Amino acid sequence: xxxxxxxxxxxVERSVLxxxxxxxxxxxxxxxxxxxxxxxxxxxxxxxxxxxTGGKVNLIEDICPHRGAPLSMGRLEDGKLxxxxxxxxxxxxxxxxxxxxxxxxxxxxxxxxxxxxVVEHFQGLWAWFGEDEDTEPLPLVFPREYESADWTGFPxxxxxxxxxxxxxxxxxxxxxxxxxxxxxxxxxxxxxxxxLVTPTDTGFTVRRExxxxxxxxxxxxxxTGAFWFRIGYxxxxxxxxxxNWRVFPLATPIDEHTCQITIWRMRNVAGWEADLFRFxxxxxxxxxxxxxxxxxxxxxxxxxxxxxxxxxxQHDVGLARLRRHVxxxxxxxxxxxxRMRTGAEA
Length: 346
Description:
Blueprint: H1 8-17, E1 23-29, E2 38-42, E3 45-51, E4 57-61, E5 75-77, E6 80-82, E7 89-90, E8 96-98, E9 118-121, E10 124-129, H2 144-147, E11 152-160, H3 164-171, H4 177-180, E12 192-199, E13 203-210, E14 216-223, E15 227-233, E16 245-253, E17 259-267, H5 272-301, H6 317-345
Antiparallel strand pairs: 1-10, 2-3, 3-4, 5-6, 6-7, 7-8, 9-10, 11-17, 12-13, 13-14, 14-15, 15-16, 16-17
Helix pairs in contact: 1-6, 3-6
Domain Rieske: 24-127
Pfam families: Rieske, VanA_C
Keywords: 2Fe-2S, Iron, Iron-sulfur, Metal-binding, Oxidoreductase
């Protein structure tokens, strides 16, 4: 049985609050990690990231196994991290490689700090957060826009003072753009008969039926080893070549009150058209996009602490479907873990 005096639904909510395990999470853009160790917090865990001599990003818990000092305050020595307090050296695998003050120390050669697998791709960093260090990572399957040479784009990243679930809900709330963003960017308005959720092989899409045409092409949730959100909206010719925009807004929990937002803006262009898109975005379009992001940030940071009291209606079917999916994932993880535990005790 599960822990006494604690319902499984309470455990599910507690697990979701700071991030689902056994998934890849975007920890930020590639530019976040340079030639010095950087301390970050993701999914409630204090971490330190750095690049070794070959440029590979390492990620381990930000705690020295000797006295608990933050390794993010340390120095890099030949691609390994040296604690500033007493010089204990730790590799990217979390193995103590040297104790300069006491070379014969029994800790040398032992793995003493948890490490996290990292994938770097399309100017972004993804880390695997398993239930424990021995959990084998799932394959990380990127959306097609991240894999095709026919698409170009770039990320921005920022910290928001709100639970990441508010951002997730916002992405699949297809009715909010025409109200929240009506003063900054044009979105087709009209009375929506209903919001439609359509299952896909990897998640679902959200669309709306309105009395006029709709320039919000789609909102989509994808679960392929990581949680992805794809927004497509129609762009007028004045926005340059490439047709419709694709936006991938990814929110990763820092803790239960704060999250890291990393957003990719993409268009189906390559070669000189990709250069033109970047030029037009930087000189003409960027301030419109930042205004939209700021409006989302302001409204979500003003929300009460998660969870809030709500009264949902039909237009909230997309976010309701998302919440159910995520909680089903966690519930299955907890039940699987409980079966393994009771089987081991039998």
